[in-house]
Amino acid sequence: MVTQPVVLTEAQVEIAVPQIRSLVLDDPVAKKAFGGQHYVFSEELTRELNQFGNFVRNGLPKRQRVRLGCCVFDDRGNVTGYQAITVMQDAKPNLEETEYVGIKSLLNYVQLKKLVVRKDYRGEGVAGNLLQVSLELSQELDKKWRGDVLATNSAVIKFLGKHNIEKLFEWHNKAGNLMWRMGIV
């Protein structure tokens, strides 16, 4: 049984973070997408989970970029999936966004940054539950939804397509990889 994403207490965050780390490190594709061990062992996961709780309780803080993380648990309390999104509020484009993506104007959208599901829970609705959080948030905030995907990641592209998320344009990241900017048209 898969549950919906929930707001975590500090104690729950301390339990969830090592499980998310294992989830990412056990999956080579996720490990690469998450930026490797640097991200996984930084304080980012803890901060993202705490900011999601703060957002639910207090609304969005007055910042240009707010990173929110949420996870889904099975009925035994084990993390089955994790998602990180960034909410852009009149954010100035950073170097990657201007030089590689080609964006020059202020950013106002909800962007999927990271999504991982435990292998034994794939195909059971975990990713869909997580994605629904970011889609609903973009509607609630009256913002567009965006995500960048490696053009070779056919599984994620197919998954997003099932949720009416389409390729908007192509771009190459700093490493030269072909990326697809995905969104709802």
Please outline the helices and strands.
Elements: H1 10-25, H2 28-33, H3 36-40, H4 44-58, E1 65-73, E2 79-88, H5 95-101, E3 109-117, H6 126-140, E4 144-150, H7 154-161, E5 166-172, E6 178-183
Parallel strand pairs: 3-4
Antiparallel strand pairs: 1-2, 2-3, 4-6, 5-6
Helix pairs in contact: 1-4
Question: How would you describe the overall organization of this protein?
Answer:
The protein has a six-stranded mixed beta sheet, with helices on both faces. Helix 1 packs across helix 4. It has a single domain, classed as Aminopeptidase (3-Layer(aba) Sandwich), CATH 3.40.630. The chain contains seven helices and six strands; from the N terminus they run ααααββαβαβαββ. A hairpin with a 5-residue loop joins strand 1 and strand 2. The model has no long low-confidence stretch (mean pLDDT 91). The protein has 185 residues and is α+β, with helices and mostly antiparallel strands.
Summary tags:
globular; 185 residues; alpha+beta; 39% helix
Give a quick rundown of the structure.
The protein is α+β, with helices and mostly antiparallel strands and 185 residues long.
Strand content: 25-35%
Looking at the overall shape, the CATH architecture is: 3-Layer(aba) Sandwich
Radius of gyration: 16 Å
Helical stretch tally: 7
What is the level 1 CATH name?
Alpha Beta
Summarize the main sheet: 6 strands, mixed
| Shape label | globular
Average pLDDT taken over every residue: 91
Low-confidence blocks of residues = none
CATH topology: Aminopeptidase
How is the largest sheet built, in terms of strand order? 1-2-3-4-6-5
Terminal Cα span = 33 Å
Percentage of residues in helical conformation = 25-40%
Q: How many discrete structural domains?
A: 1
SS content category: alpha+beta
Write down how many β-strands occur, each being a DSSP E stretch of 2 or more residues: 6
Q: Strand-and-helix sequence, N→C?
A: HHHHEEHEHEHEE
